[in-house]
Amino acid sequence: MNEFAPRPGDALIIVDVQNDFLPGGSLAVPDGDAVIAPINGYAALFANNAHPVFATRDWHPGDHCSFKSRGGPWPSHCVAESRGAAFPAGLALPQAATVISKATDPERDAYSGFQATGLGRQLRARGVKRVFVAGLATDYCVLATVKDALAEGFEAVVLADAVRAVNVAPGDGERAIGEMRALGATLAQLKDVVA
Ligand code: VGL
Ligand code: ZN
Questions:
Q1: Closest ligand 1 atom to 144 CA
Q2: Ligand 1 centroid to residue 139 C-alpha, Å
Q3: What does pTM read for this prediction?
Q4: Residues noted as catalytic
Q5: Are 82 and 64 in contact (CB under 8 A)?
Q6: N or C: which end of the chain has fewer CB within 10 A?
Q7: Ligand 1 pocket, 139 CB below 6 A?
Q8: At CA 47, angle to CA 186 and CA 1, rounded to 5?
Q9: Which atom of ligand 1 is nearest to the CA of 18?
Q10: Does ligand 1 have an atom closer than 6 angstroms to the CB of 59?
Q11: Can you tell me the distance from the alpha carbon of 137 to that of 150, in angstroms, rounded to the nearest whole number?
C-alpha cells in the first residue's frame, strides 16, 4: 500500500497560486508557473475522491505593512480584488475547494494559511489528520503553512514537484525544505500520490 495515496483524513492545501506570484506578476516567483500543472493533477485526484481541497490566497489591503511604500520588504502584491490577487486562469480549482484569504489586516503580515484564518478549525471539523501542501513560495508561505500545520498536530506532506521558491538569498528554497523535513514533514511528488 502506498503511504502517499490519499485516504480519508487527507486534505490538499494549495498555497497562494496567484497572478502576482507568477512570471509577469509584481512579486514573481522564478518558475512559479511550473506548479500549476502538477497542482491541477493533485486537485483533481483529491476532489474526485471527495477529499477536501483548500486554496489560500494572499489578500492584502492596498496599504499593507509588508509593502515597500510602508517600509516593508515587498513590492505591492496581491491587493484584494485586483487581477494580481486572482487565481490564474490555468489553475483548475475544484468546485468544492474552500478559499482561505489571509494577511488581510493592514498592520500585520501573515505568511501561514493558518494565521488568523480558521483553517485549522475547518480542517479539524472535516476530520483531517494529514495535509498535502503545494504552491508558492517554498521559502515563505509554504514554509510557514507547513510549520503551523505540524504545530497544530497535522501530519504534513510537502509536494516537492509543486512548490517553487523566491530565493531572495540563493538556497533559501532548499533550506526551507530541510527545515520542514527536520520538523517532521515528508516529501512526495505526483507519481507517489497517484501510484
Ligand atoms: C508570500 C511574500 C510576500 C508567499 C506572500 O505567498 O510566499 N511571499 N507575501
Ligand atoms: Zn504578501
A1: 7
A2: 9
A3: 0.98
A4: 16, 102, 141
A5: no
A6: N
A7: no
A8: 45
A9: 6
A10: no
A11: 18
- The residue to which cell 483533481 is assigned: 44
Tens digit of pLDDT at every position of the chain (195 positions): 689 999 999 999 999 999 999 999 999 999 999 999 999 999 999 999 999 999 999 999 999 999 999 999 999 999 999 999 999 999 999 999 999 999 999 999 999 999 999 999 999 999 999 999 999 999 999 999 999 999 999 999 999 999 999 999 999 999 999 999 999 999 999 999 997
Taking the alpha carbons of 130, 136, 139, 140 in that order, is the dihedral positive or negative? negative
Q: What is the spatial order of strands in the sheet that 98-102 belongs to?
A: 98-102, 53-58, 10-15, 130-136, 155-164, 186-188
Residues 17 and 60: their CA atoms lie apart, in Å, by: 15
Distance (Å) of CA 16 to CA 21, 49, 150, 163: 8, 23, 19, 10
Amino acid at 28: A
- The full set of domains in the chain, from first to last, is 10-194 (3.40.50.850)
Which mutation among 29, 59, 133, 141 tests ligand 1's pocket best, with the greatest number of atoms within 8 A of CB? 141
